[in-house]
Amino acid sequence: MLKGLVADGEPGLAVLVRRDGATVLAQGHGVRDLRGRQPIDARTGFRLASVTKQMTAATVVRLVRDGRLRYDDTLSRVIPGLPAYGNAITIRHLLTHTSGLPEYEQLIDDFEKEKGPRWSSTRQIGDPEVLALLEEETQGLFPPGTRWAYSNSGYVLLGLIAARADGKPFADVLRERIFAPLGMTRTLAFENGRNEVPDRAYGHTKEATGFRETDQSSTSATLGDGGV
Question: What DSSP state is assigned to residue 103?
Answer without folding.
Answer: P
